[in-house]
Amino acid sequence: MKKILLFLLISIASYSQNAKIQVKVDSIYYVDTNYKNREYYINYQVTNTTDNDISFFLIPNALIAETASSSTLYTVYKIYQNGIYENMDGPFFEYESLEELRLAQIDDINSIEFKGLSNTVKQNRKTQFAEYLKNYKDEGGLSLDKQWIYENQRLLDNIVKLTPNESQKFTIKTLWNKDKYIKNDDLEFYLDDTKTIEFELILDLKKQQFKQKLAPEYFAKIENDTNFIEGTFVSNKIEISFKE
What we know:
Blueprint: H1 2-18, E1 21-32, E2 38-48, E3 54-57, E4 59-65, E5 74-81, E6 84-86, H2 98-103, H3 112-138, H4 146-156, E7 159-162, E8 167-176, E9 181-184, E10 187-190, E11 197-205, H5 216-223, E12 231-239
Parallel strand pairs: 4-5
Antiparallel strand pairs: 1-2, 2-8, 3-7, 5-6, 5-11, 9-10, 11-12
Helix pairs in contact: 3-4
């Protein structure tokens, strides 16, 4: 048993030393926007620990739970209670824009505010889709598959680049609806504020999983580029409050 533990410790230490990037959550603070909703601001930084330029696919300001993150571009998070990982889809959900975040906080879906903001979100998506199609055609793209073009351009539009030893800071804005009971299908979870609750951020960076969404020549280029990185990079744990 001692040999196994020693091997695991050596493996973890070796991985930490060889990791090309480090992820650190600096702070988390929140604002109660109304009686039902609380906005969280998660501040973190990513550091290139190498002497080379590196790149990777990521939408750095969006968040998704680890249990729902199989092929995502988002940052991934885990929640721990008294050191035990809670494998739940929540309490935070996916928002890519401030308009989506605001929309989620409006109760009355028949209100003028909701309808106006909903139309704005839809129009922004249509505009983005049209821009992706135009950019692809302007660059000489030949595919007629609009969905593939959208996914291809979305990937190319979300590449983070870091120069040697550079750190970049990001802020994720997300929302909790103040419901401490979280139900995922037949599983139920409870955010117990008498326990120590911690938040962990993960960059689950991918290349191979996006192969079908990229032009063959582009994928071949990044596949063999050791500075276009993939892998799982885990932050420190930081305490987070769900107390009223």
